[in-house]
């Protein structure tokens, strides 16, 4: 991958049909549940990217068999064991989903990852594990590296968790809980972002035969065995966002193939959000078709449920014909980078005016100008830069290889979208 990428600019309408690889979030859950199931499972069309490869490697380190069969993954549960080292890279899913599994292993499991991973918050997860009877050694700040001292069994039971910094705390505990002696009765203290992702967790558990019920303050998972399952992974709808956004920026038409009709992916809300920005959105026999008009309308939206869509939507806001207000996303400061800060820097560099709110951004478009942007090691900041580059000549982005996190061939796919050579 080049060190600096100059995304192509384009004034004429795109007209393309795009097929995308599997969902990162569904692949992660499917791997974890298959790993703690009562027999082997098959994943068809799993996402193969850095985050999901790290999840597979982490599970292997704990004694689980994850092997390739063509493009499928075969997952064969084994006795979970330490000592082990897990490299979470920059993956929140690995960082928050594997410690509750590691608690079931016999021996210590140490988690660490990229330098930025060490800034990502886990206090709620670590406190929750401790309340469930698990010993965890950390630096006292809830940051990686930390070590989970598995003893082969976890008591489980009632627990109240603070998850305002990441819904993955809740998902991680729910995913492993059927294997805890008492299951779990999880109460959420305070706010919870990314609710669709927790609903995805609940649905994936139910698909594996786990009994999950909604309670007044959270969820209860009954103790019991996890049924193995062969599953086809849906396309990643959050990674569809930049491609669909290209329809708005160029006044063109983009269809994403195989758009699921019933999904818990937050990307399903692109339908509503892009419509609010002036696009015409319809389902066709092929998938979801988005057609842009001659302007992009500003957006006033609470993105708390769909935080991972923010970089792409904020880039569209910088190209809209009025000021936008995006709220409910304070937790983005703990994502791959502080996304509110990164978006302020990037959008300001290309000419917008940006005000950071405690929980969001106000983006006011301004005279556009060329700029060299940083990726901040964040895949979705590269997606945002690609959209800005469509409309603004002279946009460049350094370290575009950050896209490897969830869509390693993003720049080639982008070139194909535009009908250009990579
Ligand atoms: O559970 C998941 O698969 C995810 C949950 C969300 O995390 P946060 O709640 O930390 O935003 C989301 O942003 C992330 O990309 C994936
Ligand atoms: C926030 C994200 O990732 P992670 O799973 O690492 O939290 C993301 O993909 O936008």
From TrEMBL:
Catalytic function, reaction form: 3-phosphoshikimate + phosphoenolpyruvate = 5-O-(1-carboxyvinyl)-3-phosphoshikimate + phosphate
Biological process annotations from GO: amino acid biosynthetic process; aromatic amino acid family biosynthetic process; chorismate biosynthetic process
Pathway noted in the entry: Metabolic intermediate biosynthesis; chorismate biosynthesis; chorismate from D-erythrose 4-phosphate and phosphoenolpyruvate: step 6/7
Active site location: 308
Compartments in which it is found: Cytoplasm
MF terms in GO: 3-phosphoshikimate 1-carboxyvinyltransferase activity
UniProt: phosphoenolpyruvate binding residues: 24, 92, 120, 168, 339, 380, 405
Positions bound to 3-phosphoshikimate: 24-25, 29, 166-168, 194, 308, 335
Domain of life, source organism: Bacteria
Sorted UniProt keywords: Amino-acid biosynthesis, Aromatic amino acid biosynthesis, Cytoplasm, Transferase
One GO term describing the cellular component: cytoplasm
Family matches, as InterPro entries: Enolpyruvate_Tfrase_dom, Enolpyruvate_Tfrase_sf, EPSP_synthase, EPSP_synthase_CS, RNA3'P_cycl/enolpyr_Trfase_a/b
Annotated EC: 2.5.1.19
CDD domains, A to Z: EPSP_synthase
Segments forming domain Enolpyruvate transferase: 11-414
NCBIfam families the record matches: aroA
UniProt cross-references to PANTHER family, sorted A to Z: AROM/DEHYDROQUINATE SYNTHASE (PTHR21090), PENTAFUNCTIONAL AROM POLYPEPTIDE (PTHR21090:SF5)
Family to which the UniProt record says this protein belongs: Belongs to the EPSP synthase family.
Job description of the protein: Catalyzes the transfer of the enolpyruvyl moiety of phosphoenolpyruvate (PEP) to the 5-hydroxyl of shikimate-3-phosphate (S3P) to produce enolpyruvyl shikimate-3-phosphate and inorganic phosphate.
Subunit and partners: Monomer.
UniProt protein name: 3-phosphoshikimate 1-carboxyvinyltransferase
Organism for this UniProt entry: Modestobacter muralis
């Amino acid at each position: 991958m080049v060190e600096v990428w100059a995304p192509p600019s384009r004034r004429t309408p795109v007209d393309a049909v795009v097929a995308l690889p599997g969902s990162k979030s569904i692949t992660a859950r499917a791997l974890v549940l298959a790993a703690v199931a009562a027999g082997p499972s098959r994943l068809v069309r799993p996402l193969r990217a850095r985050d999901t490869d790290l999840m597979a490697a982490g599970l292997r380190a704990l004694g689980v068999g994850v092997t390739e069969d063509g493009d499928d993954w075969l997952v064969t549960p084994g006795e979970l064991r330490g000592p082990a080292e897990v490299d979470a890279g920059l993956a929140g899913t690995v960082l928050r989903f594997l410690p509750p599994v590691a608690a079931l292993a016999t021996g210590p499991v140490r988690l660490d990852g990229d330098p930025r991973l060490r800034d990502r918050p886990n206090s709620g997860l670590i406190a929750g594990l401790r309340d469930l009877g698990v010993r965890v050694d950390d630096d006292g700040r809830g940051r990686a590296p930390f070590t989970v001292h598995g003893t082969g069994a976890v008591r489980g039971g009632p627990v109240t968790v603070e998850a305002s910094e990441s819904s993955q705390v809740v998902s991680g505990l729910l995913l492993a809980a059927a294997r805890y002696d008492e299951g779990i009765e999880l109460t959420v203290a305070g706010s919870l972002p990314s609710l669709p992702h927790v609903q995805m967790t609940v649905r994936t558990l139910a698909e594996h035969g786990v009994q999950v019920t909604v309670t007044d303050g959270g969820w209860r998972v009954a103790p019991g065995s996890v049924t193995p399952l062969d599953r086809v992974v849906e396309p990643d709808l959050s990674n569809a966002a930049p491609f669909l956004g290209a329809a708005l920026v160029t006044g063109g038409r983009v269809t994403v193939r195989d758009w699921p009709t019933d999904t818990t992916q937050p990307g399903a809300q692109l339908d509503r959000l892009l419509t609010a920005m002036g696009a015409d959105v319809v389902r066709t026999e092929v998938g979801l078709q988005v057609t842009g008009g001659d302007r992009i309308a500003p957006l006033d939206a609470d993105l708390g449920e769909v935080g991972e869509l923010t970089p792409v939507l904020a880039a569209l806001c910088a190209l809209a014909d009025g000021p936008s207000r995006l709220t409910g996303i304070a937790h983005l400061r703990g994502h791959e980078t502080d996304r509110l800060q990164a978006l302020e820097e990037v959008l300001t560099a290309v000419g917008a005016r940006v005000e950071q709110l405690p929980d969001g951004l106000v983006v006011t478009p301004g005279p556009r100008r060329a700029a060299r942007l940083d990726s901040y090691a964040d895949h979705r900041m590269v997606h945002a830069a690609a959209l800005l580059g469509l409309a603004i000549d002279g946009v460049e982005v350094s370290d575009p290889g950050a896209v490897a996190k969830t869509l390693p061939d993003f720049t080639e796919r982008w070139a194909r979208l535009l009908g250009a050579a990579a």
